[in-house]
Design goal:
Oligomer: single chain
Helix content: 55-70%
Order of helices and strands: HHHHHHH
Radius of gyration: 33 Å
Strand content: under 5%
């Protein structure tokens, strides 16, 4: 082992560049063409000269809210359908749809279904009317809680400075 310097000199770089060109010539690669001297000026002239304002950027930005809400709603509906199928009809149905029951996601879904089954049957014990009343009451409580949170005025602005 000898002494090796990590500093590349101009002569080393020129020699490496020439060796690379010779290797490329063996494979009949195209010859090196220098870049036009005014390339940077042409590209810079085509760019926008002014920076857009924050309001313009905000207007151009696509709001992910509606698409995200519909995606979340579709995911919740799919989970509810799978869960309803597993809890009310066949416990191993959704689990076997996701794989084997002996391990992996299928077993996890089976465990969740078997945990939820007694809870749902407890809610359904008074009958479907009691379940509907329970769900409506829960919806009213959630709506009331949201109305309460909207009526509170904070001493500071959350979105200040944007």
């Amino acid at each position: 082992m000898g002494y090796r310097s990590d500093k590349i000199t101009d002569d080393d770089e020129a020699a490496d560049d020439e060796a690379l060109r010779k290797a490329l010539a063996r494979y009949q690669e195209p010859a090196f063409i220098p870049t036009p001297p005014d390339l940077a000026m042409r590209v810079q002239a085509r760019l926008h000269q002014e920076i857009p304002s924050a309001s313009t950027i905000r207007e151009r930005r696509v709001a992910p809210g509606p698409m995200l809400a519909w995606g979340a709603l579709a995911l919740l509906a799919l989970i509810a359908l799978f869960g309803g199928w597993g809890v009310l009809f066949d416990s191993s149905g959704p689990a076997s749809a996701l794989g084997e029951l002996t391990g992996g996601p299928g077993r996890f879904v089976l465990v969740l279904t078997l945990i939820a089954k007694p809870l749902v049957h407890t809610l359904l014990a008074p009958g479907w009317a009691g379940f509907v009343i329970f769900v409506l009451g829960l919806a009213i409580l959630i709506w009331g809680w949201r109305q309460l949170l909207r009526s509170i005025t904070l001493p500071y602005s959350i979105g200040a400075g944007t």
